[in-house]
């Protein structure tokens, strides 16, 4: 038996932020990062929020790849303020931090004794992680990324307002969109995929190939921004139900050790993982290869045979990388070879143990992961 569930209520398109005027909550904890404050986005949010809540508190201690120390500081703020509303305003790191803060604060307080779970609203300001609709979160302990998975951290409401996206730089636009593309492609070939998640993945892939370059070249293209925002959210709905694969397993440990942006790590890895999962060298047509070919046909790429379809999809991903100035290798991304080789064994072990590996369509062992890590350098 399989299950498909979308718990989050999504408000989107121009003016979606006005949803905040409909709230009937008393105490709001706004979790964000210093840039959102400096850019004036936090002020925009609070200006609207003041019309609907009695009191609010701003927590701005979020950092990229949120370290446990930042999460602990947020938990302390939560326990002191006791909000009945949490709003996460920012990119994937901010929403992940808010999820972790909510989870650990309620565990500390005792779920039965803290007045019930606050309403949790996520307002993403990048288009990539899909964290606004997923049960996943990642925090960092030293050089290790720790994934958390819990139905209790899925936001109740997501607000997708493209007005927050106009100033996102081109390279971050590309990194985050390719992260969403990776979510969709991995969920599409996952061992847990279904008709429901397939439809979400197919639409996501189409939207990203149609609109990424427009948003990359013109940040003020509001239609392109909105479509990428929708694509990111759709991909989040897909992978929170279908799971991911070893692209993410490898990206997690890469990011932990070398602080490589998550979307950029995925971008470098994805073409190689498609080739690995397709396993065309075996002489057969694997289930993953057939599904990659199906995606190629959805994109109107040459796919008269399964092998041609897989090759076309890989070429299309690489072309997107090139057109957005995304590094094609870890060496090009600036990772030191000596430091990288010293960590190959540890990273391979970590990737094998990563939660995302379980749903990968082709089995993998430590030796194969190490070969893949060598190949992508």
UniProtKB/TrEMBL annotation:
Record flagged with keyword RNA-binding: no
One MF term in the entry's GO annotations: alcohol dehydrogenase (NAD+) activity
Domain Alcohol dehydrogenase iron-type/glycerol dehydrogenase GldA: start-end pairs: 8-161
Every Fe-containing alcohol dehydrogenase-like C-terminal domain range: 173-377
Keywords, alphabetical: Oxidoreductase
Top-level taxon: Bacteria
InterPro entries on file: ADH_Fe/GldA (IPR001670), ADH_Fe_C (IPR056798), ADH_Fe_CS (IPR018211), Alcohol_dehydrogenase_Fe (IPR039697)
Family: Belongs to the iron-containing alcohol dehydrogenase family.
Protein name: Iron-containing alcohol dehydrogenase family protein
Origin species: Paenibacillus macerans (Bacillus macerans)
Taxonomic lineage: Bacteria, Bacillati, Bacillota, Bacilli, Bacillales
């Amino acid at each position: 038996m399989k299950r498909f569930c979308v718990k989050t209520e999504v408000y989107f398109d121009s003016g979606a932020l006005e949803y905040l005027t409909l709230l009937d909550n008393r105490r709001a904890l706004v979790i964000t990062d210093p840039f959102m404050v400096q850019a004036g986005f936090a002020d925009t949010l609070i200006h609207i929020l003041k019309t609907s809540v009695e009191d609010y508190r701003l927590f701005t201690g979020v950092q990229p790849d949120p370290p446990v120390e930042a999460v602990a500081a947020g938990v302390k703020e939560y326990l002191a303020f006791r909000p009945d509303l949490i709003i996460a305003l920012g990119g994937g790191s901010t929403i992940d931090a808010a999820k972790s803060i909510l989870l650990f604060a309620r565990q500390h307080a005792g779920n039965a004794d803290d007045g019930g779970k606050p309403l949790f609203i996520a307002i993403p300001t990048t288009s990539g992680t899909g964290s606004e609709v997923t049960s996943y979160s990642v925090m960092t302990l030293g050089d290790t990324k720790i994934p958390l998975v819990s139905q209790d951290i899925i936001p109740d409401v997501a607000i997708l307002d493209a007005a927050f996206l106009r100033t996102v730089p081109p390279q971050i636009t590309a990194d985050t969109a390719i992260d969403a593309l990776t979510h969709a492609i991995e969920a599409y070939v996952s061992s847990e995929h279904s008709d429901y998640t397939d439809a979400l993945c197919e639409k996501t892939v189409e939207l990203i190939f149609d609109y990424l370059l427009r948003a990359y070249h013109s940040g003020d293209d509001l239609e392109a921004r909105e479509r990428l925002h929708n694509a990111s959210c759709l991909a989040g709905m897909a992978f929170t139900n279908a799971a991911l694969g070893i692209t993410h397993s490898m990206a997690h440990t890469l990011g932990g050790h070398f602080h490589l942006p998550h979307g950029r790590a995925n971008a470098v890895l994805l073409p190689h993982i498609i080739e690995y999962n397709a396993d065309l060298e075996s002489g057969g047509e694997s289930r993953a290869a057939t599904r990659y070919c199906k995606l190629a046909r959805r994109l109107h790429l040459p796919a008269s045979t399964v092998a041609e379809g897989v090759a076309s999809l890989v070429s299309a991903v690489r072309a997107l990388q090139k057109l957005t100035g995304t590094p094609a290798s870890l060496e090009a991304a600036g990772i030191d070879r000596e430091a990288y080789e010293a960590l190959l064994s540890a990273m391979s072990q970590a990737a094998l143990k990563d939660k995302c590996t379980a749903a990968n369509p082709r089995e993998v062992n430590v030796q194969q992961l190490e070969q893949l890590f060598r190949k992508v350098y």
